[in-house]
Amino acid sequence: MPKRRPSVIDPLPDHSESPRDPDDPLAFLKGVGRALVEERRRCGLSQQQVAERIGIEPETVSRIETGVISPTLIRLRQFARVYGCSLQGLLGRTSDTLPDLAQRIAVELGPLPPTDQRHVAEQAMATAKYLQALRRNES
Question: Residue 12: pLDDT above 50?
Fold first, then answer.
């Protein structure tokens, strides 16, 4: 039986019992790795191609993307240049702070026409209100 896709009104799992530690270095490295993979795929590049452009081994790209090794700031800047994105954009994806989340949403909304931007914003606000009500009813 195929899995049902969640709708907008399906409640999200409550992570309040076990919040992610924002200072957990392993979680941060994994987040940076996920952001690098997303950008590499968006650019349609292989790990081999990225490695050649930066001047490192493909294994190093793989280990950085999986969070096994920590990239230097200079190396992250090299990745950002290859992917045509900002360093802030890469690192901002690893953060769950409201300003970083808002920035990520703004980047995604940027290419959309104003009517679609408003629609997405209205849906996000409706979802937030729904979840607030849901949490109040749970308490």
Answer: no
Domain that holds residue 121: 97-139
Q: Is residue 49 part of a domain?
A: yes
Answer yes or no: do 26 and 86 share one domain.
yes
- 11 phi/psi in degrees, rounded to 5: -70, 145
Note every long-range contact of 3-12, with CB atoms under 8 Å and residues 24 or more positions apart, other chains counting: 8/123, 8/126, 8/127, 9/130, 11/131, 11/134, 12/131
Q: Which residue has the higher pLDDT, 15 or 69?
A: 69
Judgement on whether residues 31 and 85 belong to the same structural domain of the protein: yes
Check residue 57 and give its pLDDT: 97
Domain for residue 74, yes or no? yes
- In degrees rounded to 5, what are phi and psi of residue 113? -70, 155
Shared domain check, 81 and 26: yes
Spatial contact of 30 and 1, defined as CB atoms under 8 Å apart: no
CA neighbours closer than 13 Å in the CB half-sphere of residue 120:
14
What amino acid occupies position 6?
Answer: P
